[in-house]
Amino acid sequence: MGLFSRMFRRKSAGTTNPGWLGRLWGGGPTGSGVNVDPATALGQSTFFACCCILAEDVGKLPVAVYRTNEAGKSVVAKDHALYKLLLRPNGWQTHVDFFEQMMFGLLLWGNAYVVILRDGRGRPVTLAPINPSQVTVMVAPEDGSLFFQVARTGPHDSAILRDQPLTIPARDVLHVKRLNTGGLLGTSILTGLREAIGLAIATEQHGANLFRNGARPSGILEHPQILSEGAAERLRRQWDGMYSGTNNAGKTIVLEEAMAYKPLSMSSVDAEWLESRKFQVEEIARVFRIPLHMLQHTEKSTTAGAGLEQQSRGYYDQTLMPYLERIEAAFDRAFGLSEAGISVSFDTWALLRADIKTRFEVYAKGIQWSILAPNECRVWEGESPVENGDFRMAPVNMMPVDEWVKGGWKNVSTPAEGDGSGRKD
Predict the structure, then answer these.
(1) Which of 189, 246, 297, 395 could pair with 292 as two cysteines, CB 3.0-4.6 Å apart?
(2) What is the DSSP string of 13-39?
């Protein structure tokens, strides 16, 4: 076979198997014989569930622009151009949709791209996310500056990018990278999961084929007499037609001529198949760093002595935070925020709301050591402020901090000496 024949044959095979193109995004053939790419991976239930958990957890977090004031305190910068954009990035998405799409890009392709559309004065007015498969990163040979070549694959892309050049400069693209190991691109999570997902898909397909075809005998028919080859074949066809396959499950079996039906118990192969499915859930969750209880897989959800609450906290610290910090850093770089004392930050307090014990311990310590005022805690809990709840208190008899600074502590008495308030008239 000549060189050209081999080349064209590989090209023909590539119409159904992405080959090198799929491997760019962590996809490609696996040892199980299943081709794994972003599309096929999303068809695997555990992988899809992990992606949804991460995307939805990021999407539901409040995000805002903050400015550091002269007192060194971070305050919401409502006058900044990004403030409204983070609430409504574009005309077709909410901020939840926007960040969910960003997370799917990071997980499946290792990169998320957002084209920054500006008005005539150069102010950002729209954040348009682009499917990573449509983007090619290019480097100018003269000075090494980056450009992003964005393919228009439909009327929507063509409409929103109609005023943009085919190759967009880096200053107009927000690029978030997942786990950069060197170079210009991030790494897809599929890079470390191809074989695990391939085996999981192959296992599911094997089970589906068995159920569809009734390939595994569920029992044995015994006849008191020796049947001819034709009679045995006729009996087999009749039995398969009446009782094989999922559509015939649950039908009543009628036996004639003193025949007997002996069901087969679960074989060791069946048990291994079930264990393999469980193991693949754990393997995929391990790479994502998703606690098993979040995947409704509770057999080993409290291993290593960690309760569910501690595992959830570990998920927040070790799994979710790196993604949030990457996104925040990408906004800082794209818009030059830190130089102006501006930052984009996710409000992760919402993630702790389910843990009431931790919340109220934080409130108590904050009030006790003059860090928080009672009304601040009430607002976070969705309650209305109360009168005199804006004072910060000092540990000694919990008096207002302002009076403590002015020397009011000299007038402090025990409750027995005063009126019970801890303060002399």
Answers:
(1) 297
(2) HTTTS-THHHHTTT-B--TTS--B-HH
